[in-house]
Amino acid sequence: MSLVKVDVGGGVARLLLDSPANRNALSTQLRTELYAALQDAIDADDVRSIVLSHNGTVFCSGADLKEVRDGPPAPGTPTVPQILVDIWRSPKPVIAVLAGVARAGGLGLAAACDVVIASSSVSFACTEVHLGVVPAVISAVMRPRMMSAAIHQLYLTGLAVSAQWAHQAGLVDVVVEPERLDDELRRYTDAFNLAAPQALAATKRLSRSDGAIAALQTELAELEKLSARYFASEEGREGLAAFAEKRSPRWAQPG
């Protein structure tokens, strides 16, 4: 069963994360399908913009922690850094539309997009420190978007914040009531349909140049090592075990 639904029409490629039972976690299958769908949308002559959205109450919960505990993925499996880079350098604008909450790596997926539209009812949280790991990889695409003090608070506390807070911090571009998500999305896709494709791509490169993309790739390679080190650490192993066993990790202090 496919975990990424694709619909192309009216100049728009809509990529829908469709693994609600797994909170749209970035499993091996979902990453593989999303990576392929992005490539197809980027290569399609009839696509002017790409929409990344979801089924279910969660946009994306981040890493598939069960898979992480089971061991490394097969060689050649698309990684989160590869997906973030492809979104970042896509010559076609990528719009994230969130009708559900985002957690951990899901924030990075949204932050890499050119436009982030969120329902006023959703929340965001970077919960990595509660699991004994570090929000390393996603920081490469979140830092350019967000106020430094806000991202500092978000990472250190692991607490959930509102869509309005995320908007003020720079993570989200537009917050609308849930029933207005489709209308707001259409406002952007209509605008991109009116733009000359080559001019639009060149305009995007003004802020996401080849040099910036190369720097991002270098940074992501180092951050991926940092992330892997903490997942393999004593705290990381205990945090993943506690999550699987639905208990508090050993380091947690009673309030």
UniProtKB/TrEMBL annotation:
The family database entries (PANTHER family) matched by this protein are listed as:
ENOYL-COA HYDRATASE (PTHR42964), POLYKETIDE BIOSYNTHESIS ENOYL-COA HYDRATASE PKSH-RELATED (PTHR42964:SF1)
Organism name: Mycolicibacter sinensis (strain JDM601) (Mycobacterium sinense)
Name the UniProt record assigns to this protein: Enoyl-CoA hydratase EchA7
Family annotation (InterPro entries): ClpP/crotonase-like_dom_sf, Enoyl-CoA_hydra/iso, Enoyl-CoA_hydra_C, Enoyl-CoA_Hydratase/Isomerase
**Organism placement in taxonomy:** Bacteria, Bacillati, Actinomycetota, Actinomycetes, Mycobacteriales
Family membership, please give it.
Belongs to the enoyl-CoA hydratase/isomerase family.
Listed GO MF terms: catalytic activity
